[in-house]
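hey so i finaly got around to running the thing on Alpha-galactosidase from Clostridium brassicae. pasting the sequence first so u can double check i didnt mess up the copy paste, my clipboard has been acting weird all day
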Amino acid sequence: MKINNIYLSYYVNDVLKEITLNFLESVENDDIKFVPLVSQFENGYMLEVKVISKKEITLDDFRIEYSINIKNSSMLVNGYQSWTESMEMTKNDELKNINSIINGIMEPYGDYSFYKYKGQKGVLHSYGFTYFRDIKKPMNNVLFLGSLDEKSGYTIFEGNLKNDKLIIMKDCSGYLIDDEKSILKIYIEKAEEKKVWDKYSSLFKESRKKWDTCVGWTSRYNYYKDITQDIILENLENMVRKRIPLDVFEIDDGYENSVGDWLLTNEKFPLGMNFLAYKIKSFGYKPGIWIAPFICSKDSEIFEKHKNWILKDKKGKYVIGGWNSKWGGKFYVLDFYNIEVREYLAKVFHTVINIWGYEVLKLDFLYAVAIISRNGKTRGAIMQDALDFLSDIIGDKCIIGSGVPIATAFNKVDYCRVGADTSIYWENNKQKFLKYRERVSSISSIHSAIARCRLNNRVFNNNTDAFILRKENNKLNDDQKYTLFVLNNLLGNCLFFSDNVKEYDENTMELLKSIFPKMKVNINYIKNKKEVYEFYFYIDDKEYIVLSNLSSSQAKVKIPEGEYFNKSEFVIKGNSIMKLKPYETKCYYKIQPKKDFYLVGTTGHLFSGSEIESIELTEKGIDIKIKDKFINNSDIYIKVLKDNVNISLDGRKCSKINKKGYTIIKM
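ok and heres what it spat out for the 3d tokens, dont ask me to read them lol
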């Protein structure tokens, strides 16, 4: 990487001044001292740029332009916030600004108002972090760059893959400096992908405890705003009848009188929200609730009685947070720095947690608090101030962050949405055509979950959003439903669904039960060729491959050497060519032969064999122990190389049958 240009502009008493350099050096003038610092960090290095002001200055722009050999690389494009489509892209891809047809109502959701889209093939931009991967040698080391400070402004990495250029820029306009401030701090290293993510995440101070894996039910993706107390109770009771071992049962949008009036429950919930929290707890689930803390709708009591709480721009106009037809159109942003707003939110969360009794808080539309910079603070600083405030008042209760700029949420939330809302459709083709990157879309959600999977269990637990298995009110075909189901399980520690399980047939219920217990996955590496993905991963000491065809054409994949087990195909020899229909996904357990006996596979868990806690040879024979929360029926296939060996399951002798040279235990 060779520096071509360093550019800094700032205002002193409304006069714009500029500094231009062509290499890293300290410079000083009557206003400021510009201090770049480079330090070695293991095999990589840290680049920090400090500004020491002699007068009060306001930053306008800062960027460093590099020459870099990236023409034959793919670039990780991390979108602006949770819902922004993210993926690895190449010099043949492009990012365009949102179409003017929907710009007026959808612009606030993205970066369209403050980042200038180039609209050229190969000119791509990523927020917070990125890497470059050699397309011809994808298993080689990646060149990684990651921001360590977003308070000085969102860090944007703009790569020109056709002209071998990289610009590191800060969204720092309006940043007030009256002493010494860091305006850029990034970590750069070329290394093996997993190792570089481990190093990067270790540089962030842990501020919240790590919650475990989570499977939950939410009202959103089936009922949306049209929920009632009876609908919630019916789904809760059906879940209990079917003995589904959920972690969380969450009530989403629709309980409040209006968006913003979180303590005013509407007439559809006559017994109140504390009654429902009590009911949920009584069945052994953690009660969860949805709140969008920084916005309000026009029909809310807040908007009617507290207009001084609404954020205004420099022209004195109310700041619009977005548009939602179910909320009456445009909605507005609360001024987080208004003390009355913070007092109101403190009261809301005190009531929700300590009086109503909710333990899991899904906090949504968080980006809205930082739509405009103000008070001498950048958007990034405002976002972090708001997240720190929420973390403080919520305490040790669980936070699920959504609609949030990803890098600002590191260690500020317990779970974080890493993709768009999934949908009963595979893709929203109209909004995709209009270049709306935050669209509700199942395939967009999957793309982002793949791109951000390395964040999982490092800086937070990834919430890969909802799967949809139901037949009613669903336009996904069977392969699309299964692919969404598998990949959401694979790529994150937290997932939800909204189906009424009473409507499931026997096969669908068996599939749902196959995700329990929810497993922590250790992804080794991912291959991608024309939307056909190969995921290689471990669960405990067991090795797996998932093959997933996200394209609309049939695909073929050659699996590596060895033997593999799949419920429908049984034992597959390595080096076989596997055919995948459009949108089809298959999962394989890699058989690990041993001297006396070994596990061939199981049929009860989505990830075959992962439900087995241990399998060992004792003086009495083979003893198999099953993990807690496993609730499905299952056949366990074992290869026994000695005759007349007793087999016990959780300490109890079990019956067995022999078939095709394998011993089968039925649970």
